[in-house]
Amino acid sequence: MPRAKITEVAREAGVSLSTVSRVMNGNQSVDAALAERVREVAARLGYTANPLARSLVLGRTQTISVVIPDLANPTFQAILRGLSHAAAKDGYHVLISDTEERVEHESEVATTTRQRTDGVILCAPRLPQDELAALLPTIAPAVVINRGPQENAPTVAADYGTAIMALIDHLRGLGHRRLAFVSGAVSSASGEARRRALAAACDADPGLEVIEIPGGVDFDSGAAVASAVIDSAATAVLAFNDLVAMGLLSAVSARGIRVPEQLSIVGFDGIPFAAYTSPPLTTAAVPAADLGRNAWAAMHALLSGADPVATETFIPELVVRESTGPAPR
Amino acid sequence: MPRAKITEVAREAGVSLSTVSRVMNGNQSVDAALAERVREVAARLGYTANPLARSLVLGRTQTISVVIPDLANPTFQAILRGLSHAAAKDGYHVLISDTEERVEHESEVATTTRQRTDGVILCAPRLPQDELAALLPTIAPAVVINRGPQENAPTVAADYGTAIMALIDHLRGLGHRRLAFVSGAVSSASGEARRRALAAACDADPGLEVIEIPGGVDFDSGAAVASAVIDSAATAVLAFNDLVAMGLLSAVSARGIRVPEQLSIVGFDGIPFAAYTSPPLTTAAVPAADLGRNAWAAMHALLSGADPVATETFIPELVVRESTGPAPR
DNA sequence: CTGTTAGCGCCTTCAT
DNA sequence: ATGAAGGCGCTAACAG
Predict the structure, then answer these.
(1) Averaged over A161-190, what is the pLDDT?
(2) At B194, is the secondary structure helix, strand, or coil?
(3) Residues B224-246: what's their mean pLDDT?
(4) What is the pLDDT of residues B267-287, one digit of tens each?
(5) How confident is the model at residue B71 (pLDDT cuts 50, 70, 90)?
(6) Looking at the partner chain, which of A52, A72, A100 has a beta carbon nearest the beta carbon of B52?
(7) Cβ atoms of A228 and A239 closer than 8 Å
(8) Pairing of strands A264-266, A236-239
């Protein structure tokens, strides 16, 4: 019960505030014996410096703000986890904000939370680039996750384009030529990256065809596009993420379609559960925890005045499981 | 960019600090015209009161601390999500701490984070009751999740006992008499509740047999006990949670055991993914987001001086899916 | 080496 | 209705 204030410790130990403060902060310039006495009194009183007061005078809170769009999404959860563990290891606290996919609030949340923290790590896939660019300088130091390189903040991101390529190559290798792409309903940074990669793949291989089917980002939206996918006559489908893939897999299976014999499905993200569907999902595993860990490392560097890398990129790993197989016929 | 301090606003508006403060806090005792002018200047300068300074003088931070044992666990994630959404709605921030299942740190984390927040919501299933009891008064106000009623803090919990009963009744109804229980390796509050319910069921029905198999709390530990489960000759198994159930389901399936024809499996928690395994998992759905929401409500009441309910209990819902079926033979 | 004196930025009596 | 002054609890010059 850190009820005790520095004043009481000082009085009890018969010294001045400054001395107590020095001792508590490990300032060597205090007589050893005196320091020991102070420490003892402090211990006896259960004294700990009030972090708020320290923050006010020191100008730092030992806390960072993390804003993410959706705590229900396993990928963001993993990012948060890696981040929070890493920050904790360095003695930092994490203030978490879930914007619940309401893009209009992201800037404000970032700004507001920034005031009570030392910096913000921003995961805002759908925030328009110009807004983001305008926001960043006002909340520095900031680190951005899963967006292209930024003017005013280091960036930690997965390379969605390359991962999509790997997925496509995998499918092409299996003989698939007509692909469906269930895109996230909303235009996100990573969605764009996916789309670009798809387009590039089509350009490179005229025999390849990709039908884009608008969808969402969760189970339900995956299930919802089942008909559209089937109607598309595609032999393989790239889902926006594993959640969508799982919803889709479940829905098409329910309609008697066999995966992968009649339809191959690939997910994206590599959430742990993707290994437990039936059949297990082929996917591109985004090292989300690493993203989080590295986002913290970048922030830590910023906070420590070290010069951080401006852009860090992770290549998702292609994980081939049983939801993909040779193209039918 | 809330760079502006109250002093600048005051100077710019030609008034005193106090006036600005009053205006910003909606204190009516300020001349309307003057107030308007101040507001305008404040807006122009992008002024916002420094939350840290306010916290220091006001003695409240508008932030609560949430400590949970494992951010990788979907149930805790859901709790956090419900909690954070509810708190945000009331204008509160959330400082999140993941103790990574290191029970020895839970007290300290709670104490430390309490100092920078207005209260702590504690999810510490394995913290010994006496330690918890000793801790609570020192971190008040506190709210405890998923533990028995506490002396010094309101409690929000799922009724594990009743849920286990429902699961057992379901299995008994299917003719199962020899059950395996894959217990979490560690003794947690909810683990005890499960065990008690199991024991009670055995007492009530001498024909019922329950073999306890020590396990963990995640996929891998579920897979790890596959042999033990098979060797136990049980016709149905209650997994500690859905994760364990999934790992187990996957492992026994790989050994050619058909679920539920040869072995019924039930999980616990009702994580979203449990619906997507093959076969989909019968489970007891803990309303985790509700737990979180209500934990916040309890904290909010505490913070507002309202008298909160001391103990709130949620009954998990039995969700019957295809992983359970009639006992073989 | 230790104590005294200023603030950090804001809110709040207390006067006026 | 407004301003001046004190203090929230602590750290950091600045003096001794």
Answers:
(1) 93
(2) helix
(3) 96
(4) 999 999 999 888 999 999 999
(5) very high
(6) A52
(7) no
(8) parallel
> Which nt has its C1' nearest the CA of A22?
D11
pLDDT at A216 over 80: yes
Residue in chain B lying closest to A80 (CA): B71
**At a CB cut-off of 8 Å and minimum separation 6, what does A51 contact?**
A61, A62, B115, B116
Instruction: Look at A329 and A274; give whichever has higher pLDDT.
Output: A274
What is the token pair recorded at B260? 């539920």
pLDDT for res B187: 79
CATH architecture assigned to A63-157+288-313: 3-Layer(aba) Sandwich (3.40)
Q: How far apart are CA A213 and CA A216, in angstroms?
A: 10
Sheet holding B93-98, edge to edge: A311-314, A155-158, A142-145, A120-122, A63-68, A93-98, B93-98, B63-68, B120-122, B142-145, B155-158, B311-314
Mean per-residue pLDDT over chain A, rounded: 94
Mean pLDDT over A7-18 rounds to 93
Q: What is the distance between the alpha carbons of residues B79 and B289, in angstroms, rounded to a whole number?
A: 5
Residue B118 has pLDDT above 60, yes or no: yes
CA A306 distance to own-chain centroid: 23
pLDDT at residue A249 above 80? yes
Contact B273, B75 (CB under 8 A): no
- Same CATH topology for B6-58 and B63-157+288-313? no
Biggest alpha carbon distance in chain B? 90
Cβ distance of B95 and A100 shorter than 8 Å:
no
B133-145 pLDDT, tens digit per residue, is: 999 999 999 999 9
User: What residues does each domain of chain A span?
Assistant: 6-58, 63-157+288-313, 160-286
Q: Which residues of A touch B249 (CB under 8 A)?
A: 276
> Which class is B160-286 in CATH?
alpha beta
Give, in order, the Cα–Cα distances in Å from B94 to each of A92, B195, B197, B209, B329: 14, 34, 35, 45, 53
Q: Which residue in the block uniquely carries the two structure tokens 């030992």?
A: A62
User: What is the band of B3 on the pLDDT scale with cuts at 50, 70, 90?
Assistant: confident
**Class of the domain covering A6-58:** mainly alpha
Angstroms from A17 CA to nearest CA on chain B: 18
Q: Measure CB to CB from residue B219 to each of A93, A98, A272 and give the nearest one.
A: A272
In 3D space, the residue among B71, B78, B124, B70 whose CA is nearest the CA of residue B287 turns out to be B78
B48, B50, B85: residue with CB nearest A100: B85
Q: Which residues contact A33 (CB under 8 A, 6 or more apart)?
A: none
Q: Given this model, what pLDDT does residue A2 score?
A: 53
Nearest-CA distance A162 → chain B (Å): 27
Chain A residues lying within 8 Å of B55, measured CB to CB: 52, 116
Q: For B147-204, how does the pLDDT look when each residue is reduced to its tens digit (9 = 90+)?
A: 999 999 999 999 999 999 999 999 999 999 999 999 987 778 888 899 999 999 999 9
